[in-house]
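Private note to self, pasted from the team thread so I don't lose it. Backbone tokens:
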């Protein structure tokens, strides 16, 4: 008599849900990545801290203090006393203030275009590839680095003083105007000349703008028979107009700050 063999039904494989019941689980950001981000931010703020401290202590702080003292009667020995707009009304009525504003406007209006013309002219010359190009660029930029030093100011004053180089050159042409530094009407011209001499910063910006002008435009102009002056007016100037506007704005602010704006002080 045979025994019947019964086979147990095969167990079904457990089905796997495609997604969890409560939606997809977002993997949390690793803690090590968070610590790395904090260290990066801390390093950035650490490197910026000298500039931030200098801005708060040497720029923003004095600006706010000067604005407050402009509305007060203040000297170094007495506490400031609030007087409102009296300082400004006295300043606007002072003829010396109007004269200083007029000289400042003249200085900016004359010095800015001459300086930018010199910077653009030298930039056009240095934009061409030639031997010793790096040396010439550094040499023309050097006056911008040393122009504000005391030694340069002393040398510049000696050049324009009585019986100096400029005075002797004038006498060769029959002009006996004397030294520029001792004449209030001529000293402004020496300041403009010193400003124009320091054209290194706008020159570098012009060089960067000239490098962005596509060479294909000049090649097409050569095919059409355009001369150098025509290429300059029709290609170079329109292409570097944003850089030119930036330099005009920057130099106007720079020369205005260098000339100095009179700050109203108390009558005491």
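Design output:
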């Amino acid at each position: 008599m045979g025994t019947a063999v019964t086979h147990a039904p095969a167990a079904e494989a457990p089905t796997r849900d495609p997604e969890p019941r409560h939606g997809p689980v977002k993997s949390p950001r690793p803690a090590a990545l968070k610590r790395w981000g904090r260290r990066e931010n801390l390093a950035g703020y650490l490197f910026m801290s000298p500039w931030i401290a200098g801005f708060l202590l040497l720029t923003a702080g004095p600006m706010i203090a000067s604005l407050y003292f402009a509305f007060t009667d203040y000297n170094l020995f007495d506490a400031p006393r609030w007087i409102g707009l009296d300082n400004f009304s006295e300043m606007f009525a002072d003829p010396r203030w109007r004269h200083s504003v007029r000289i400042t406007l003249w200085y900016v209006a004359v010095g800015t275009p001459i300086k930018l013309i010199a910077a653009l002219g030298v930039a056009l010359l240095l934009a061409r590839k030639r031997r010793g190009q790096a040396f010439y660029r550094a040499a023309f930029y050097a006056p911008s680095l040393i122009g504000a030093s005391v030694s340069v100011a002393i040398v510049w004053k000696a050049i324009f003083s009585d019986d100096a180089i400029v005075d002797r050159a004038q006498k060769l042409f029959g002009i006996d105007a004397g030294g520029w530094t001792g004449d209030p009407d001529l000293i402004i011209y020496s300041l403009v000349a010193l400003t124009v001499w320091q054209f290194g910063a706008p020159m570098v910006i012009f060089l960067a703008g000239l490098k962005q002008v596509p060479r294909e435009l000049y090649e097409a102009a050569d095919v059409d028979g355009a001369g150098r002056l025509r290429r300059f007016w029709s290609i170079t100037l329109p292409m570097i107009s944003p850089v030119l506007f930036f330099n005009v704005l920057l130099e106007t602010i720079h020369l205005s700050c260098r000339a100095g704006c009179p700050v109203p002080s108390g009558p005491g």
